[in-house]
Design goal:
Length: about 180
């Protein structure tokens, strides 16, 4: 990484490390990713990561939070100007796929779920966050629980189809009424 002569604040550096970690955790998963590789991607020393994050788990959870925050922001933006639960869910669904077409974020999201399945501490955090996202979809859209569940299920379908290189499976869903 070339020096620009401008010193980054700790918040800016933290964001830079999270961006690098999104890619690293997405590619390698929680257990195989290394803080040394994340530091290299971010253009910093490995010890500096520990000045920003207490440990690898805290960094991993920051990655999870970044992914979920992007989804929430996209959903909120998409819902603006909609008037019915159906219209809102459709708009939010249309906003979701482009987010997941960024393979770094798709992979990081899937790795967060995978790591949570095998680790009770991660499971609690990721599970609480997922429930919060589901609750927010319900609040934003005003949709009934069954419609929200179908919406979330569709999102998981999109994740799988994109992750395994079968994006064409998603096309009929985008244009169905």
């Amino acid at each position: 990484m070339a020096s620009t002569g401008t010193r980054l604040s700790s918040d800016e550096r933290r964001d830079q490390v999270i961006d690098a970690a999104v890619a690293e955790f997405g590619e390698r998963g929680y257990h195989a990713a290394s803080t040394a590789s994340i530091a290299k991607r971010a253009g910093i020393s490995q010890p500096y990561i520990y000045a920003l994050f207490a440990d690898k788990q805290e960094l991993f959870l920051a990655v999870h939070d970044r992914v979920i925050a992007r989804i929430r922001e996209a959903f909120l933006e998409a819902a603006r100007g909609t008037s019915t639960p159906e219209e809102t869910l459709h708009a939010m669904g249309m906003a979701y796929r482009p987010l997941m077409e960024d393979s770094r974020y798709l992979s990081a999201q899937l790795q967060c779920f995978a790591a949570a399945a095998g680790d009770p501490e991660l499971r609690e955090y990721v599970g609480t966050s997922f429930r919060g996202l589901v609750d927010e979809v319900a609040r934003i859209s005003g949709a009934d629980p069954e419609s929200v569940a179908a919406f979330i299920s569709c999102g998981m379908y999109i994740n799988i189809a994109l992750a395994i290189g079968q994006a064409d499976l998603v096309e009929p869903m985008l244009y169905a009424d």
